[in-house]
Amino acid sequence: MKGFIERLKRRDKTAIAISCVAMFLALGGTALAGKLITGKQIKDSSVTGKDVKDGSLTAKDIKGSIAGPQGPQGPAGTAAATNATIRSQTVSFAPGSRTLTVPCNAGETATGGGLSITAGGTYLGSYPSPFTGKPTGWTGSLEAAAGSGTTASVYVVCVSP
Predict the structure, then answer these.
(1) Can you tell me the distance from the alpha carbon of 98 to that of 66, in angstroms, rounded to the nearest whole number?
(2) Residue 60: is its pLDDT beyond 70?
(3) Which of 23, 87, 96, 131 gives a 20 to 30 Å CA spacing to 56?
(4) C-alpha distance from residue 126 to each of 22, 121, 152 (Å)
(5) The domain containing residue 1 runs over which residues?
(6) What total of structural domains would you count in the chain?
(7) Omega before residue 135 within 30° of 0, cis
(8) Digit-coded pLDDT (tens) for 99-111
(9) At 158, is the secondary structure helix, strand, or coil?
(10) Mean pLDDT across the stretch 63-68?
(11) CA–CA–CA angle 100, 89, 135 (5° rounding)
């Protein structure tokens, strides 16, 4: 039985030694290939995007421009709004829920606005008017305080070409 165990120990050592040599060759082989193969040995246009590891190239690695030819000029855009005006209205309200809408002039578009409560009241909201479609004004909603006058201002930023 003792001879059998000795043979097993020798076999284990031999197997471990062979596997270590195989591992060394497998890992060292790719590193060696990386040093032996250069760009001069690769045929032009034979390496494609799928052959290159993501994030491995830098701007220095690319010669020339990677952009394609410039496309045709697109159609002219619409005129930009060059005239902006702030319109506002200040009102004193009786107690209760109240709204106030400040309109833009004809031909203007509302681009923003707000509500400022200057005395006794609770802010409920501020939004373009109408709520859908092209905004032509701004609306402020508030709850006016009971027992005292509530003063609030609604303003709108209107633009026109």
Answers:
(1) 60
(2) yes
(3) 23
(4) 75, 14, 12
(5) 1-39
(6) 2
(7) no
(8) 999 999 999 999 9
(9) strand
(10) 74
(11) 60
